[in-house]
Design goal:
The chain is an all-alpha fold and 316 residues long. The protein is built from eleven helices and no strands.
Length: 316
């Protein structure tokens, strides 16, 4: 067994151990403090734990399946997220061609370019070519009512759900000296740190939260939760340096940056939900919303993390 496979298995086993402990704690708290489901905080915590189980199992299977499994998993996630996003935006019959192009042309091409490791065109295909051709396809139908809003929403959906999300498996394409065949651990680092930051912000906020950050956007987010969650996740990132090519200091700095991006990404996606008058993006994960609800922080932090790592090693 290679060192990379051994590290990955140990990491997955460790995460499963943490989830088992968290599930037991959640079950005990529910039986004692919320037997009838009346305690919203405990119910929310258990919903998060269930969502984590689903994500860890799916990502673990994809990791063990190798590069193809990871790319296919995130291609499916992009498709599902794009579907959730499109259900909440302003679309008319004239937009059907543009939407079809987004799902069945732009998305497959983006992931094919990733598979082929064509970084140059991969990095500009959606923000340049798709952004130019999407309005052309839409305008050919001749419907100008709310045209700018309609096409901008489709472009934004592509940017978040496909372009940003595809930068998670894009970490597999990085060539880091001395880190060959271990890039899947970079994905693990990104997902674990950002997702734990979300959970820890919630926990710190429930324990010590007094001052709201953005009451209209996300009432549960507090200054105390933000500080406690970001700092805790930064320390966890530094402690996970052994699965990365980074020093503990650099791992901590990168963890700090991606948790900040994840936090502000969550606020942006919350603003879109409030604008649409909905609580969740969808119902894919029972009791805890849609796929975007669980991955909003990750997709905002993924491009930043990818390029920081890529250019750090290109300049080293």
């Amino acid at each position: 067994m290679s060192a990379a496979s051994s590290d990955l298995i140990h990491l997955i086993l460790g995460i499963l151990g943490v989830l088992i402990v968290a599930s037991v704690i959640g079950h005990v708290l529910q039986r004692r403090l919320s037997p009838d489901g009346s305690n919203a905080a405990i119910e929310n915590l258990n919903a998060r734990i269930k969502a984590w189980w689903v994500m860890v199992i799916l990502i673990g299977i994809a990791f063990l399946a190798g590069r193809a499994g990871v790319i296919l998993l995130f291609a499916f996630c992009s498709f599902a997220a794009l579907r959730e996003f499109v259900t909440l935006i302003n679309t008319r019959r004239a937009d059907h061609w543009a939407l079809a192009a987004a799902f069945f042309v732009a998305l497959p091409i983006q992931y094919y370019l990733l598979w082929a490791e064509q970084y140059g065109i991969f990095s500009i295909f959606i923000p340049v070519y798709a952004f130019l051709f999407m309005p052309i396809i839409a305008v050919l139908r001749g419907d100008t009512e709310r045209f700018l809003i309609r096409i901008a929403e489709v472009q934004w959906a592509l940017m978040i759900c496909v372009f940003c999300a595809s930068h998670v498996p894009a970490l597999l394409t990085l060539h880091i000296p001395g880190y060959e065949e271990r890039n899947v651990l970079l994905i693990a680092f990104l997902v674990i740190v950002v997702q734990l930051s979300d959970v820890l912000q919630y926990v710190w906020g429930k324990l010590f939260g007094r001052h709201k950050i953005a009451l209209k956007l996300s009432p549960s987010k507090t200054v105390e939760g933000f500080i406690g969650g970001i700092l805790s996740a930064t320390l966890i990132g530094a402690a996970l340096w052994w699965i990365t090519p980074f020093t503990p200091l650099l791992a901590g700095l990168l963890a700090f940056v991606i948790t900040l991006m994840g936090f502000f990404g969550g606020l942006v996606m919350s603003a879109i939900k409030r604008d649409r008058g909905v609580k969740d993006w969808g119902h894919l994960i029972e009791g805890h919303g849609g796929l975007i609800d669980r991955l909003d922080s990750v997709v905002f932090s993924a491009p930043i993390f990818f390029h920081l790592v890529r250019y750090w090693w290109s300049l080293s």
